[in-house]
Amino acid sequence: xxxxxxxxxxxxxxxxxxxxxxxxxxxxxxxxxxxxxxxxxxxxxxxxxxxxxxxxxxxxxxxxxxxxxxxxxxxxxxxxxxxxxxxxxxxxxxxxxxxxxxxxxx
Length: 106
Prior knowledge:
Largest sheet: 4 strands, antiparallel
Oligomer: single chain
Number of helices: 3
């Protein structure tokens, strides 16, 4: 529940309403709408000492693959780093585009 609550708070605060948190348990992600934004977030997080990957059709999802044995302190610190990276990247982005639909029901 902690990871979901934190990620929901982050997407509500940043991304101009276009970011979406998805996933379950310790396997979650933030859909950052496009690969450029997600790449900038992961680069910024890496410079702060956190290794984060992207996934999705355009590498637009910042993935959280938290180990099941992670301490509460390390989990909070990691999410804090990502939140800070998102804050910095969004502040430097003129406009957050709307999410694209990659797959549609026929």
